[in-house]
Amino acid sequence: MKLTRRQALSSAAVLPFAATATPTLAAGHAEASALPTHRVHNLGDFKVVTLLAGSRAVPDPHTIFGLNVPDEEFNAVSKVAFLPSDNSQFFFTPTLVDTGESKILFDTGLNPGGITAALGAAGYAPGDIDTVVITHMHGDHIGGLSGDDGETFAGAGYVTGQIEFDHWAGAANDNFEGKVRPLADKFQFLGDGGSVASGITAVAAHGHTPGHMAYMIESAGKQLLLIADTANHAVWSLERPDWEVRFDMDKAAAAATRRKLLGMVATDRIPLVGYHLPFPAVGYVEAAGDGFAYVPASYQLML
User: Fold this and answer.
1) What is the pLDDT of residue 303?
2) pTM above 0.85?
3) What is the CATH code for 18-302?
4) ω before 280 within 30° of 0 (cis)?
């Protein structure tokens, strides 16, 4: 598969706010029921459905983004972008790829309730899912794998990166032990360039976690890149790729990955899906100064 003229890098802690995030927004905001819970995008012969599994306000964003820049710079960049510098809104957006032959879910949100509600609004049930792909094993990506009623996607197989699984298997992490370890014998593992299904290829995006993966989706000559947590904010991460992010485990590697993957999609003018970008989480990237600019998609993938 041709990823781009710039080949992707073959190459980092659970977000503390993720553990308490729910599909309902913080007090003082509209409830999640008033928000769209899914958006269908056309990509060749595939349907790509972004699913809002949760959202919440997060205070003090400079304690998360731009750790290596002073308050004055963070505040100035935020002001130019019409953003408050004392608060932010986080979105948690798994993605369903319906190939017509199979239904492949990328990540599972914070809990079973959020992902099953979003799937249901889009016309799908957990039993419809053939494969669940885990881009990485932070709690807001694996939280929907199981709950009090057991395994959410009992009929599905699971796929993740070998490096990612091996890291968390030795990390004594409660989320991994509770959500992933019980399903270990149902997992298949891949590396950079590995295939989930025809038209769906793993792209190493290490740094946020040791084995963090992006995925290139391709159908009928059209491409889209699922970047997962490569860039977690349209301004404080995507626009400023060298700004350090608290939850990037290897901050230098994460910044290098941002530059490579964002440079790739900017050069080849292909859309991306970002797990934490403003819902519906789909847009384009263009080079801008020493970084990038995010251009949210409107109707381009709905035609």
Assistant:
1) 79
2) yes
3) 3.60.15.10
4) yes
